[in-house]
Amino acid sequence: xxxxxxxxxxxxxxxxxxxxxxxxxxxxxxxxxxxxxxxxxxxxxxxxxxxxxxxxxxxxxxxxxxxxxxxxxxxxxxxxxxxxxxxxxxxxxxxxxxxxxxxxxxxxxxxxxxxxxxxxxxxxxxxxxxxxxxxxxxxxxxxxxxxxxxxxxxxxxxxxxxxxxxxxxxxxxxxxxxxxxxxxxxxxxxxxxxxxxxxxxxxxxxxxxxxxxxxxxxxxxxxxxxxxxxx
Amino acid sequence: xxxxxxxxxxxxxxxxxxxxxxxxxxxxxxxxxxxxxxxxxxxxxxxxxxxxxxxxxxxxxxxxxxxxxxxxxxxxxxxxxxxxxxxxxxxxxxxxxxxxxxxxxxxxxxxxxxxxxxxxxxxxxxxxxxxxxxxxxxxxxxxxxxxxxxxxxxxxxxxxxxxxxxxxxxxxxxxxxxxxxxxxxxxxxxxxxxxxxxxxxxxxxxxxxxxxxxxxxxxxxxxxxxxxxxx
DNA sequence: ACCTGAACACCGTTCAAGT
DNA sequence: ACCTGAACACCGTTCAAGT
Lengths: 231, 231
Prior knowledge:
Oligomer: homodimer
CATH architecture of the domain at 80-168 and 199-231 in chain A: Orthogonal Bundle
Largest interface: A-B, 74 and 74 residues
Largest sheet of chain A: none
Radius of gyration of chain A: 23 Å
CATH topology of the domain at 80-168 and 199-231 in chain A: Tetracycline Repressor, domain 2
């Protein structure tokens, strides 16, 4: 009530800064880091921003777009340098994709939305640029390199979406086990190929599988001509 | 009210058959075919089955499990024979995976859940068995074949999840366009590799890309040894 | 054992009305 | 132009109580 007190509330908290897309997305990232993507809802964000849900629709088209914006923000954490793994394009490419996967692993639910709602933000473009550059050093034809980038990102994203859920959600763990158990329980007479390949089918560490998957794609990409290519 | 009328109501409609997991899943498939997966909710299904949502939890652990069951039912539609494409394992494998992708294309939202909640039903096992059998005819080492099946299914599923959304949801179309536009709008000075690879980066028909993706994987799988393999 | 009413704790999105 | 209260039409899941 005294005169000298008046500015305090403006300083105590950010004091309801004007709404803006940037502010909404920043808040969304905070909420996601603290409580996961499924708490990043319009209503929850509105509460966080001290307004009603309807207000957010001035800046964000819908929940999916909001999640896409959060994803692009997270992509800023990917290490594009491929630091400390030597000069070879293959090693560097492996490192960049490993960093991308690691970031998605920490935010499982985001990997899912990455598969469906393709990102197109600044950080995504930088990632594509970097992968393109590294892969083109393989000397493969330009078309193969261009299409290959898509496959590499898709593979990394899908792997993250699959395995990341496992790591976090206890129910998903059971899910993998259910598949493994089902494969084990199979009748040799009706499913001979499964029986034959059994130990390998569910074996291998995640790292081994990821590295192998990377090599499979790189080898395939650099040796498989695009249909109708000049040669 | 007359005596002779009494059985009619039992015949007019299925007359509320006893609840069972099978009956719930069948109904879920129907609802999905008619209105899409996001109408397959516990509450909606309960209404359809003329009971309260709580009743369903006796047979189904949660919504995710319900969706997984629907997916396995749909997998029954995949053509495993690879009919009419010759005897080569490669052509047959391509046909089976194309059929798998086609089924998922018709039910976009299901492809998403397939990536996260691994199926383990009867139809899934038959699909794995068939792919395993075909791929092993390549003569590649057993470990590569075993791990390769996973990659082939993952690739097909991810492709379906990505592209299928495009086809149905008008918003997703914009999404692709947004990515395409972003790639076009890029500055040559800051993103030289994107500029260089530009026409190819977003070009190519879905079919060409899918076929190329298949060849990339098969070539990679058959030529890339699993880490620590005997030889 | 199986089933359920009712409740708890949420959602996304729109729209008319205000500033 | 920007913002919002209030409403519409939903969700998943649990639990105590019934048969």
